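Students often ask why inverse folding is considered easier than folding. One informal answer: many sequences map to the same fold, so there is more than one right answer. In these notes we will look at a single instance of the problem. The structure comes first.
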């Protein structure tokens, strides 16, 4: 029996139940995980200090994943983000240490560089018509080479000023870690852009049905390029904050953010909506991953278990997203 035929045989009540499961399973899972970890480790896990630490550690994942969400909403994939963030971390550190540029100037230059990389990705995909997976993977590989060329494969550690470290490690407002504050601003801004503006409606229209959006007069290429540019800027910001947190620029420091960001984005698409990508869902997906890793660390689980959890989460996320999309189309 084919999948469409199987769906047609489902009763309305069964479809409704599946729809509720697809929409809320991730939230229920997050709450259940927090409750379970709290019961098993009541002194270490359910504390304000630990929750703040989880948010602080997950803030960079949330920022880079939120940018990726915009690229995915318009129907494309950006596989360059992790490699780009690594390059931007080296670049901002080098500009500050080697070129003696003021921190705000160095940060601004790197953010512009992130936008340029996103623009290049967007132009390759929309104008040259290269598949986004191939295009961004190729660009990401080039960026890795540039990162090693710029740093000669040696981390930039010596001479990093304290003010730059405080960008990520400081607590400038109400004792809240700066990374959390920056994350809230970025995610709040992107959520507002997508959900509350006219251009956000165009972004969703292009992702939902590019042909219909084009017939409606929307410049689909421009919108897709915008998605890549936002993804590039968020990758640049992540690289800057990671270099500030580590106190150094390293050629592969942010490479691991790629898989984590995709897991968060696809988990988010299975949250509250029927397989649709959205910024709030990405936030929830990132929280699930962050609390899962935090619980494993508290219980002293081996490092390999984090990779197993992350891979399993990605598979489940895609499955739930597909389920939600199938239900909405049936």
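Output (designed amino acids):
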């Amino acid at each position: 029996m084919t999948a469409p035929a199987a769906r047609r045989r489902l009763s309305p009540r069964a479809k409704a139940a599946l729809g509720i499961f697809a929409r809320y399973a991730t939230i229920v899972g997050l709450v259940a995980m927090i409750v379970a970890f709290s019961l098993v480790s009541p002194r270490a896990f359910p504390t304000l200090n630990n929750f703040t630490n989880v948010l602080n550690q997950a803030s960079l994942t949330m920022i880079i994943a939120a940018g990726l969400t915009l690229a995915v909403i318009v129907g494309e994939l950006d596989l360059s983000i992790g490699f780009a963030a690594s390059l931007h971390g080296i670049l901002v550190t080098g500009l500050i240490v080697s070129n003696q540029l003021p921190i705000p100037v160095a940060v601004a230059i790197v953010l512009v560089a992130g936008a340029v990389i996103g623009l290049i990705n967007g132009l390759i995909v929309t104008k040259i018509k290269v598949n986004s997976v191939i295009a961004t993977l190729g660009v990401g590989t080039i960026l890795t080479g540039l990162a090693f060329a710029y740093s000669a494969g040696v981390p930039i550690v010596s001479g990093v000023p304290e003010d730059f470290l405080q960008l990520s490690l400081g607590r400038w407002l109400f004792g809240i870690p700066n990374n959390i504050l920056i994350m809230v601003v970025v995610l709040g801004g992107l959520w507002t852009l997508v959900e509350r503006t006219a251009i956000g409606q165009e972004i969703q229209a292009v992702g939902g049905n590019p042909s219909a959006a084009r017939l409606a007069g929307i410049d689909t290429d421009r919108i897709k390029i915008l998605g890549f540019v936002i993804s590039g800027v968020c990758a640049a910001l992540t690289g800057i904050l990671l270099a500030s947190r580590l106190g150094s620029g390293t050629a592969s420091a942010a490479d691991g953010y790629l898989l984590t960001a995709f897991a968060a984005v696809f988990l988010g698409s299975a949250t509250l909506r029927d397989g649709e990508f959205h910024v709030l869902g990405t936030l929830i997906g990132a929280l699930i991953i962050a609390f899962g890793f935090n619980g494993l660390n508290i219980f002293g689980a081996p490092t390999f278990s984090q990779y197993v959890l992350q891979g399993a989460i990605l598979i489940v996320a895609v499955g739930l997203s597909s389920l939600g999309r199938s239900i909405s189309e049936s």
